[in-house]
Amino acid sequence: MNSSLFPPLPAYEGLHPLVVHFPIAIMLVVPLFIVLAAVWKGQSKGMLISALILSVLGTGFAFLSVSTGEAAEKFAKAVPGAKPTLERHEGLAELARNLSIVLMLVLAAVTAAYVVMADRTSRRVRLIGGCVLFAMSLVPAIVLANAAHEGGKLVHVHGVHAPIVSGGAASVNKAIEQGASPEREDD
User: Fold this and answer.
1) What are 46-87's pLDDT values in tens digits?
2) In-domain check, residue 148
């Protein structure tokens, strides 16, 4: 197989731009499934289970995004004037991750309770519960959207880029020591 058909896999420090979009997209869809669970009686269980699965996936990707962001942090710190934006981005990202954990745990408890008691749940309880869950699911989504906005400012205002280099972390560290901010090194 010709390896030139595939782009080089970046070092861990360069993975942040590749993984960060997953939790954003996933956590913005969770509230939709919660609303569907509240209003679509025949599919309430399935919609709640789907919301829970998405919440688990989104939370997992939030952990990965925070981790890769911390690995790429040195690139932002090297850019003059980016530190306040970086600190807001980092703080919001960690808060969004933590709120996602809380939402995931609450969704797990509610889903388990609903699966056990679905036949005894009135429409009113389902709608009120759905509204409460919907409001709860908006909190991490809004915080995550704000973290993404700050990340976008790092890239589009301050010019911060995580490098995509072949050769792994050693090449990245060498490039930083030389004062470069490479996006790709050709072999």
Assistant:
1) 999 999 999 999 999 999 999 999 999 988 898 999 999 999
2) yes
Q: Is residue 102 part of a domain?
A: yes
- For the stretch 98-104, contacts whose Cβ atoms lie closer than 8 Å and that sit 24 or more positions apart, written own/partner, are 99/139, 99/140, 99/143, 100/23, 100/27, 100/55, 100/58, 100/59, 100/62, 100/140, 100/144, 101/59, 102/140, 103/30, 103/55, 103/59, 103/136, 103/137, 103/139, 103/140, 104/52, 104/55, 104/56, 104/59
In a domain, 5, yes or no: no
Give the predicted TM-score (pTM) of the model.
Answer: 0.81
Question: Secondary structure of 9-36 in the HEC alphabet?
Answer: CCCHHHCHHHHCHHHHHHHHHHHHHHHH
Count of domains observed in the chain: 1
- Comparing 11-25, 63-77, 113-127, the range with the smallest average pLDDT is 113-127
Distance between start and end Cα atoms, the chain: 18
Give residue for tokens 């790092």.
154
Residue 47 lies in a domain: yes
Which domain, by its residues, includes 126? Answer: 10-177
Give percent helix, percent strand, percent coil of the chain, each to the nearest 5.
80, 0, 20
